[in-house]
Each structure stands twice: as structure tokens, then as C-alpha cells.
């Protein structure tokens, strides 16, 4: 399956949206090295659902990284509307925030 049809962020999407790619490669390395295979698999579902939400509900097809505060808030409202458990919503937000936390960590160390 090509990266253009998958719901999780592709290398190209992340690289193009992070300071013109200067942090993108490092972020991808950190993402791959910092999570177990099980965690990566568990984080895949939130990314799939978020991409589908952006496409279907927001009609947004652009790069999703970084996630805007507005899109995240609307996604949380969507999850609540769909009767997701609070613990699941928390897990989904954690999964979506993970690349942002890594990007911030890398950027902070380079200052």
C-alpha cells in the first residue's frame, strides 16, 4: 500500500511540514527507535481515525503534522460524540501528541 493511501503520517508529510524538513528526518528516526512494535501498532489506529476524521468531517486533505489545536479539539469532540470512553480518548490524544513531543524535544536540545 502506498504512503499516499495510508492514514498514519508518511515520511514525506512529516518532513515537508517540519521547518522545511530540517527536523523531519531526525523525528522519523526517533519515532522508530522510541516505541516498541506493540506501541507503534497501538498508535496506528488513532492516526487512522484522525486522518479519516479530517478527510470526512473537516474536508481537510493537507498535511496533518503539526496537528492544529482546532483540529485536535474537534477530534476530541467527535470522539465524545461517538461515545468513546474517556480512557480511549486520552490514549488517542497521547498517540497523536507523541510526534509533537519528540519534535519539541529535538528542537529544544538544538537551541
Describe the 3D structure.
- The protein is an all-alpha fold.
- Helix content is 68%, strand content 0%.
- Helix 1 packs across helix 2 (24-34), helix 2 (24-34) crosses helix 5 (86-110) and helix 3 (37-56) crosses helix 5 (86-110).
- The longest helix has 25 residues, at 86-110.
- The radius of gyration is 14 Å and the shape is globular.
User: What's the mean pLDDT score?
Assistant: 74
| Number of separate strands | 0
* Low-pLDDT segments: 1-20
SSE succession: HHHHH
Computed CA radius of gyration, to the nearest angstrom: 14 Å
Q: β content, as a range?
A: under 5%
Total helix count? 5
Which SSEs are present, and which pair or pack?
Blueprint: H1 11-17, H2 24-34, H3 37-56, H4 69-81, H5 86-110
Helix pairs in contact: 1-2, 2-5, 3-5
